[in-house]
């Protein structure tokens, strides 16, 4: 990675009296925690079925959500399955989905440039208080799919692809399999909303404990009726519904905290001509609507983030770049407006004429920005999947907003391929862009209430006096 050249470009850009829209101001890597290199803070020990550590830190850019201040929550997907292990379960393991709480220290230097230091502060495992369905492993060459950490009142979700009830369709919320892909924080700061590819599902979890609070009923059009632990078999065995491994890839929450807006990665089996589904969910009532989004140059969508209650940025990308042994081409954010768009619930086929309004050109072209900063297109991560607005900053007396973008490194810390025969680091990476109101008219920041970090909840037992001291100390540090 051309770090010196990148730093020089960033300093020159920030020293310029005129800012271009969406300036790249900092990059940062997260390669470990206080528990060790590429280890998270779950406290899990031992290894998964494929030999990977149960506490392996990776995949952080599958989903990224701002939690207020300099706190973000990163969301790994179903776990380390990029290395061949057992094709009968799509190389998946009993990896437990988890929330990774990160402090993003974005600091200005005397020279006017910025540095980003991501620090993992806690890991929260996701579970259900009611029983879930796990695969027996019979005939698949693997053991039971239930995580060993399960207790009488905690049933942990898992990345294992066979953890489902074959007698019901894929929207069954009692299935233990979960492939999280996007996350947003509630306005009160106490819970998170997570979207998934397996169901697809949209669940609400308690942010401090990881317990599932609520399951939202999604439209039946998204379901597949014939389930299989092998994704390709699910694709071949269903004429309608989401395509395996391309379910609810993105999730937004409107700034008022009242509406969730999910987006499916690829067209449903019954849809054609590059149209993917957007699903809005009224959080209070659970009422849903569906809209169509027409792809431009990307092969799919990886995330969506709310500008306001009707406009959104959509992360459209291909799968090219570092990790794919190819050259990155399409990593673009488009602006859409759902105002006046037709509800396509109950419709199928070519939905192009009903698609939401979309900017003719991308609002942000990540490949163009990074290559201009001296990063080779071969070194740009293939899976740019996490998008989140962040805290405001002040530069030269001017308030600027921030946009954070993260990659999913598939839990693979080093890539060795024909593009990089000597090997190249493939960390969890974060890119920070700054912009003004003029760059993104109508932008409204989500107002998230401050809550104690997950690890401080244990202090509740120690009394209100201790909590007050802790809160005052955090406030002083902030």
From TrEMBL:
Keywords, in A-Z order: Signal
Domain Phytase-like: 57-411
Domain Ice-binding protein C-terminal: start-end pairs: 450-474
Leader peptide range in chain numbering: 1-20
Pfam family, one: PEP-CTERM
Top-level taxon of the source organism: Bacteria
Cross-referenced InterPro entries: Ice-binding_C, Phytase-like_dom, Quino_amine_DH_bsu, WD40/YVTN_repeat-like_dom_sf
Protein name: Pyruvate-binding protein
């Amino acid at each position: 990675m051309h770090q010196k050249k990148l730093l020089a470009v960033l300093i020159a850009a920030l020293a310029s009296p005129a800012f271009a829209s969406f300036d790249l101001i900092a990059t940062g890597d997260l390669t470990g925690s206080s528990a060790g290199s590429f280890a998270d803070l779950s406290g899990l020990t031992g290894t998964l079925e494929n030999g990977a550590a149960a506490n392996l830190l990776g995949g952080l850019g599958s989903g990224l959500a701002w939690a207020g201040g300099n706190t973000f929550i990163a969301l790994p997907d179903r776990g380390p399955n990029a290395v061949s292990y057992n094709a009968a379960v799509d190389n998946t393991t009993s990896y437990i989905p988890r929330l990774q709480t990160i402090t993003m220290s974005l600091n200005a230097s005397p020279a006017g440039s910025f540095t980003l230091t991501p620090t993992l502060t806690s890991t929260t495992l996701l579970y259900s208080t009611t029983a879930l369905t796990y695969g027996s492993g019979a005939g698949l060459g693997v053991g039971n799919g239930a995580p060993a950490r399960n207790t009488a009142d905690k049933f942990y979700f898992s990345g294992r692809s066979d953890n489902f009830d074959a007698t019901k369709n894929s929207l069954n919320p009692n299935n233990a399999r979960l492939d999280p892909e996007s996350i947003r924080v509630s306005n009160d700061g106490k819970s998170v909303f997570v979207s998934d590819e397996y169901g697809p599902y949209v669940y609400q979890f308690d942010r401090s404990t990881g317990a599932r609070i609520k399951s939202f009923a999604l439209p039946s059009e998204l379901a597949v009726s014939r389930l299989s632990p092998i994704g390709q078999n699910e694709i071949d065995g269903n004429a309608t519904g989401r395509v395996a491994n391309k379910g609810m890839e993105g999730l937004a929450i409107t700034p008022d905290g009242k509406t969730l807006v999910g987006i499916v990665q690829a067209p449903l089996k019954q849809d054609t001509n590059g149209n993917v589904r957007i699903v809005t969910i009224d959080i209070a009532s659970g009422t849903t609507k569906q809209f169509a989004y027409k792809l431009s140059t990307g092969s799919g969508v990886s995330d969506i983030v709310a500008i306001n209650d009707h406009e959104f940025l959509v992360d459209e990308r291909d799968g090219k770049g570092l990790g794919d042994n190819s050259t990155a081409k399409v990593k673009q954010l488009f602006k859409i407006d759902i105002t006046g768009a037709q509800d396509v619930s109950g419709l199928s086929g070519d939905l192009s004429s009903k698609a939401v309004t979309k900017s003719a050109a991308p609002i942000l072209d990540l490949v163009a920005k990074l290559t201009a900063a001296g990063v080779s297109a071969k070194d740009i991560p293939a899976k740019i999947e996490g998008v989140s607005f962040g805290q405001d900053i002040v530069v030269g007396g001017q308030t600027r907003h921030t946009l954070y973008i993260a990659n999913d490194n598939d839990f693979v810390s080093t890539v060795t391929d024909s593009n990089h025969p000597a090997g190249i680091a493939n960390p969890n990476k974060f890119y920070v862009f700054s912009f003004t109101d003029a760059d993104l008219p109508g932008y409204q920041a989500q107002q998230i209430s401050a809550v104690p970090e997950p690890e401080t909840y244990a202090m509740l037992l120690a009394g209100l006096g201790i909590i007050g001291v802790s809160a005052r100390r955090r406030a002083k540090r902030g």
